[in-house]
Specification:
mainly beta; 5-stranded antiparallel beta sheet; 0% helix; 44% strand
């Protein structure tokens, strides 16, 4: 339930040798305990994936995963807090990423609370950017942008997780992007996709997954970006989105979505007007995570 708009606190910077120079990081909240997991690519020629966990007070030491490499941001997903997904436990994490260099395939791995499984390649799918992960009505969802702009493959594709692998990829022919799409879910089967358009279309678009697929794309014509928007949900179906501006505007903007799952005017979905955070700037995409029991 959306209790009203709130402001955002002053920015806190985390500096670590590799983390501070990451292209963009994956960030996933554990709704059952006060912990977070972060994953990121190294800097410069270091295309190894690194990770660290937050214990509610501080971040643990960064650790490298030398069996996996990427040229983009890895994606992280922790399984549904209201019940296991695809036969997996709530302690498990799923990571997906694009390969490095000429390897534009998507790879994936599971963390069981103790160790990461060996990387597995999805040879039927390739991307020019990193994939995104979320939980929708159809289960665990992966979405990504196609691999080759020259051939016109800038469509967004998607697939669902079976517990041991992935269903065949499906193209969303009505939507295109130059970047990774953003996915946000509320842990109750409600999944929203946000993305930047293609070429000179730097507007933000959005769509929701339903039991029959994805709703038609809708444009948010008042907001523009040069990077992937970040989106996260509270436990009541309300979402917050954050994004970098377009062109010379490198400030961060934000907006909230009223999804009236638990409101009196059920069925309505409304994005509130965008607001600028003039005290913070970025050259890439912001990440956002909302504590599971937080209600804005």
């Amino acid at each position: 339930m959306l209790a009203g708009l709130v402001g955002l606190s002053a920015v806190t910077v985390l500096l670590a040798p590799a983390a501070s120079a990451a292209v963009r990081h994956g960030l996933r909240v554990d709704p059952l305990t006060p912990s977070l997991t972060m994953a990121w690519r190294g800097v410069g020629s270091d295309n190894t994936i690194w990770w660290s966990q937050f214990n509610g007070t501080s971040w643990g030491p960064q650790q490298d995963l030398p069996d996996r490499h990427t040229d983009a941001a890895p994606a992280l997903l922790r399984f549904n807090p209201n019940g296991a997904d695809a036969g997996l436990s709530n302690d498990d994490l799923l990571m997906a990423w694009r390969g490095a260099g000429a390897d534009n395939h998507i790879w994936w791995s599971l963390y069981d609370g103790t160790r990461w499984s060996s990387p597995q390649q999805l040879a039927d799918r390739a991307t020019a950017a990193g994939p995104a992960l979320g939980i929708g009505g159809s289960g665990i969802v992966m979405a990504w942008r196609g691999a080759n702009s020259a051939s016109g493959d800038n469509h967004i594709w998607w697939s669902t997780f079976t517990g041991t692998g992935w269903t065949g990829q499906q193209v969303l022919a009505d939507r295109r992007s130059d970047l990774t799409p953003g996915l946000g879910d509320d842990g109750n089967g409600h999944l929203t996709m946000v993305w930047r358009g293609v070429d000179t279309d730097n507007r933000i678009w959005w769509s929701e997954e339903t039991s029959t697929g994805w709703t038609a794309q809708q444009v948010l014509a008042d907001r523009r970006t040069e990077a992937t928007p970040g989106i996260s949900f509270d436990a009541y179906g309300g979402a917050m989105m954050a994004w970098r501006g377009a062109g010379a505007d490198n400030t961060i903007w934000w907006s909230t979505l009223l999804n009236s799952v638990n409101d009196t005017n059920a069925g309505a979905t409304t994005w509130f007007p965008q607001q600028q955070l003039g005290d913070r700037d970025t050259g890439t995409a912001p990440a956002i995570a909302i504590s599971f029991d937080y209600d804005f």
